[in-house]
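Practice problem: predict the structure.
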Amino acid sequence: MKHIFMGHKDIFGLDIGVSCVNAVWLRKDEGDYRVIAAGRKRVAHASRGQLAPDALIIKAIRECVKSVKIKTKYAVCSLSGNDIALRRFEFPVVSDDELANAVLFEAEQVCPFEEGQFIVDYQLMNNNRLGSKKLDDQSSDGLTCGILVAAMADVIGHRNQLVRKAALNCVLMDIDGLALLNCYLECEKQEAGKTTALLHIGDSFSNLVILPDGGLPFVRDIPHAATEIIGRVSTEHVSPDAIRDTFYGWRQDGRHDQTIRSGMAAACTPLIAEVTETLRYYALHEGQAVDKIFVCGHLGAGQDTCELLDARLSPKVVLWNPFEKMRCDSNCRGFDIIKAHGPSLALAAGLAMRTI
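Answer:
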């Protein structure tokens, strides 16, 4: 599943959505991340309420990268949704070849895809950290622990094609939830004895990642996100495109603020219900309740959304902006975008932190 351009480390994170494209370019200096550039571009929609075709997404990718003069052509992208299956695993210590075969066999047993139609990869983990494929990534009881991912081959191919047509090279394909987890682990310090969750509200899917203090993370993609919520908030007098422009910050005249506020509680109900059910499932099966939820993403970037979620979810909900833990000079390209939309760029930042 990983498409690696060996020997090249100058890469940037590219978060491709149906309504917005985000790009983040980072450098790591003496253990600390420094923002080189960050871009954000609206994806034009063909007509009222309809999602953009590929040509408009490709155009937005080109404009996003060009707007902040990202020099490298090597991008890290990601996937999420129904065409992705993600499972945790624990195996006895085995050789590299045996581990690869064990992961493939496990994927064939648990993944709902037809044989030969999906690609499998895995990530070993050690003490909650995303590791490399080495046999020293083992838990204290001698088990090899990690996460396997199966993704439909045609979905990977389509995402690669979008990037190529934008004159870029996709050198690594990640998973949204794992990229967010990577960003959190790089930027935050997990509280001892606490269980934390990340909720990223994306364009088409929301990603919920639960991270205990010890043990493997739990990752789930939820099919309730910005596009659906925007459709629920819109009325016969206010189009989805107008609501979307307000949500994503493309329009800031306040014309639709009252419509959004009055419709948000009902529009977010399916998402909140899914998150609540997942938290209950996790507590029942893992024996640990989530103490705090860090929210980010397109809708999660607004304080109003954060307050709504905090009022209706049991754990404390806080707005998460990973750029607060990075060096971001005022002369970096896209500084104003980071200041205004930092929580929306969390996924792109996590992708930019990958190494190849």
